[in-house]
Amino acid sequence: MGSLPTITSVTMQSVYRVMPNWMWVDKEFFFKRWRLGLYLDLQNVTVSKLRQPDVFMSTGVVSNPEAPLEEQRYVMRRIEQISGTLLPTLGVTVEF
Questions:
Q1: DSSP 21-49
Q2: Residue 10, SS3?
Q3: What are the φ and ψ backbone dihedral angles of 70, each rounded to 5 degrees?
Q4: For position 15, what pLDDT does the model report?
Q5: Looking only at Cα atoms, what is the longest distance across the chain?
Q6: Taking all residues of the chain, what is their mean pLDDT, rounded to a whole number?
Q7: Backbone angles phi, psi at 22, to 5 degrees
Q8: What is the DSSP annotation of 50-81?
């Protein structure tokens, strides 16, 4: 296993950006022959909810099994379609 490179000089750059509902932070370390970048990306930082129409799914249970086949109906289940979670992403980039 190789040893870690000796740091002779490091230049750092930090960037902090905010857009509506989106924020990210970059930190870059510049070495002699390569660059290390770290970032944190947060999407939906306000945790706002997006409401969409509900979806109906069959439960597989027939509500009227005694009826003729063409008149049988399945019991449906309503599924709410709401999204709005905070989505963090951590990243590392290396350039030679």
A1: TEEEEEEEEE-SS-EEEEEEEEESTT---
A2: coil
A3: -75, -10
A4: 58
A5: 83
A6: 82
A7: -150, 135
A8: EEEEEEEEEEEEES-TTS-GGG--EEEEEEEE
